[in-house]
Amino acid sequence: MSRSESLAAYLRAQAWRRLDRVEVDDDGRNARCALALLDTAAYAAGLPEDDPLILMLAEAGCFGPLGHEGFDPGEAGAKLIRHWAGGEPHELLLALPQAITAAT
């Protein structure tokens, strides 16, 4: 599995978790978050392995110490993804390395 595919799979799984959440009076927040994550997953799946966004995520350690493991954004990155309210797909991917760096 390529890094782009691994990132996309992680984002799709997080989107499904948001869709599975049942909260009284969330005013569609979970559905909007899930759609934003699915949009970002589709965007990420199409990125080539040498895309600067993928390389930035690898440098931030999201693909393990050698850059070839499955996508794992760590606690800070996971928190950002869990609370992502939407925006352009590249905005989330750009924000991840910053969130991870700020947490260390």
Write the layout of secondary structure elements.
Blueprint: H1 3-20, H2 29-45, H3 52-59, H4 74-82, H5 89-103
Helix pairs in contact: 1-2, 2-5, 3-5, 4-5
| Structural domains: how many | 1
Radius of gyration: 13 Å
- The proportion of residues forming helix, as a percent range, comes to 55-70%
Strand content: under 5%
User: What would you call the shape?
Assistant: globular
**Main beta sheet: strand number and arrangement?**
none
* Number of H- or I-type helical stretches: 5
- What are the low-pLDDT stretches, counting only 5+ consecutive residues below 50? none
How many beta strands in the DSSP annotation? 0
Distance between the termini: 28 Å
Oligomer: single chain
Supply the helix-strand structural class. mainly alpha
Which series of helices and strands comes N to C? HHHHH
Mean pLDDT: 91
Question: What is shown here, in short?
Answer:
The protein has 104 residues and is an all-alpha fold. It has helices at residues 3-20, 29-45, 52-59, 74-82, 89-103.
